[in-house]
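ESCALATION

Customer reports they have been waiting on this structure for their group meeting. Please prioritize. Original submission:
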Amino acid sequence: MVFALPTQSPVWLSFSSVFALVCGALASRIVYTELLQSRQEAAADRAAQAQAYKTMFHERAAEHAEFTTAMTDRLAANDRSLKELESTIVLAEARAIEAETRVKREARRANEAQELVDQLQEQLEIRKAEQADELASWEGWDGAMDAETVVDLLAWEEKVQAGSSEDRSDRKHA
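Update from on-call: job pushed to the front of the queue and completed.
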C-alpha cells in the first residue's frame, strides 16, 4: 500500500484506495460498535443504579412509615396520659375544695359549739351564784347545815332540771 504511490501503478493505487476505504469502513464500524457497547453499558449502569435507588427508596419509605406510626402511637399515648392526669388533677382539686368546705363548716360548728359552751358555763356560774345567794338568804340557815348537804341539794336540783329538759326534748321529737 505504501508502494502504490511511488510505483504509480493504477492497479496498486486502486487496490490501495479500496483497501483504505474498507479499512475506514471497518474502523467506522469498530468505533460505532464500541460507542454502542459503551452506551449499552452506561444504560445498564444507569438502570442498575435506578433499581438500587428504587429499592433504597422503598426501604426508606417503609422505615419512614414505621417511624411515623411509632411516633403517632407515642403521641397518642402521651395525649391519653396527659388527659388522664388532667382529669386526676381536676378530681383532686374538686376533692380539695370539698374537703376545704367541710373543714370550714366543721370549724364554724366548732366555734359555735365553743361559744355555746362558754355561754352555758357563764349561765352555770350565774346559777351557782344565785343558788349560793339563795342558800345564804334562807331563813332557816343558821350554819347548822354543812357544805356537803348544800352540794347534794344543788346536784339533786340539777338532775331534776336535766330530767325535765330531756322530757321536753323527747316530747318535741315525738
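Sent to customer with the following note: The chain has a mean pLDDT of 85.
Escalation resolved.
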